[in-house]
Specification:
about 280 residues; alpha/beta; TIM Barrel; eight-stranded parallel β-sheet; two-stranded antiparallel ribbon; 10 strands; globular
């Protein structure tokens, strides 16, 4: 599994395992143990997913050393604010059964997220977090954010898939050495991704599925990916993308699939911001 080097020198696996929408304790715990057993070495969770305890127990019970696992969590909106963020990240440490975290992100750029990030900066400087970053930041908010904080975000985790490739955002992130990380790398199957003619045609050449080609496109573009599945065979398929390379022509054909818009949440829409601010754990 290749690594990417974050802007502070920390190495992060380019492919990890996500546990979004797996709130059931036993199911999540088993999924993480299965993911580790087939070769994943990065696990992405969040306070808002309400499964940090299952992730922590799975890691504690696995045969993989903690030092070999890259753990990411995210601070939820209702836990923003300097003191509350300090408190809840410490709670996350306890649930995840670890004395440090590899990466902690601000989950949504709403409410008092500047104070929350100040708390992450302190935890970073204290050595409790190896890298800090943000999530769901569009280009304008991202540029403002890096100009007004001491520690540049190491990562911005955003909706990124073949239909929303984040080309404008990536221009500014590249200028400031922030790593892009994809959530929903399969677009949750929207726009018939798994039956897409371009992806399947390219996949036939390499004996790969449309899903594998979609992941490879992102990875070959420098994106960190965190596909999710609760099925071992699909986990194996999702990680089996490192034995082939797409040609420049194939990359261009997939690049042309970009619709340059969200298929999920438009963070420039005031109604989205109102809805997010009302969500509680």
């Amino acid at each position: 599994m290749p690594n990417v080097k974050l802007n502070n020198g920390v190495l992060m696996p380019q492919e990890g395992f996500g546990v979004y929408q797996v709130p059931d304790y036993e199911q999540c715990k088993q999924a993480v143990k299965d993911a580790l057993s087939v070769g994943y070495r990065a696990i992405d969770t969040a306070q808002g997913y309400q499964n940090e305890d299952a992730v922590g127990d799975a890691i504690a019970e696995s045969d993989v050393d903690r030092k070999d696992i890259f753990i990411t969590t995210k601070v939820w909106i209702s836990n923003f604010g300097y003191e509350k963020t300090l408190e809840t990240v410490n709670e996350s440490l306890k649930k995840l059964k670890t004395d440090y975290l590899d990466l902690v992100l601000i989950h949504q750029p709403v409410a008092d997220y500047y104070s929350a990030y100040r708390a992450l900066e302190k935890l970073y400087n204290d050595g409790k977090i190896r890298a800090i970053g943000v999530s769901n930041m569009d280009p304008a908010k991202y540029v403002d954010f890096i100009m007004n904080n001491e520690v540049k975000p190491a990562v911005n985790q955003v909706e990124t898939h073949v239909f929303n490739q984040q080309k404008t955002l990536r221009k500014y992130m590249n200028e400031n050495d922030t790593q892009i990380e994809s959530w929903a790398p399969f677009a949750e199957g929207k726009n018939n991704l798994f039956s897409n003619e371009v992806l399947n045609s390219i996949g036939e050449k390499y004996a790969k599925s449309a899903a594998q080609v979609a992941l490879k496109f992102l990875a070959q573009s420098g994106v960190v990916i965190i596909p999710k599945s609760t099925h071992v065979e699909r986990m194996k398929e999702n990680i089996d993308i490192w034995d082939f390379e797409l040609t420049e022509d194939e990359m261009n054909k997939i690049s042309d699939l970009d619709l340059n818009k969200s298929l999920f949440l438009d963070h420039s829409n005031p109604e989205t911001i109102k809805w997010l601010n009302q969500l509680k754990l």
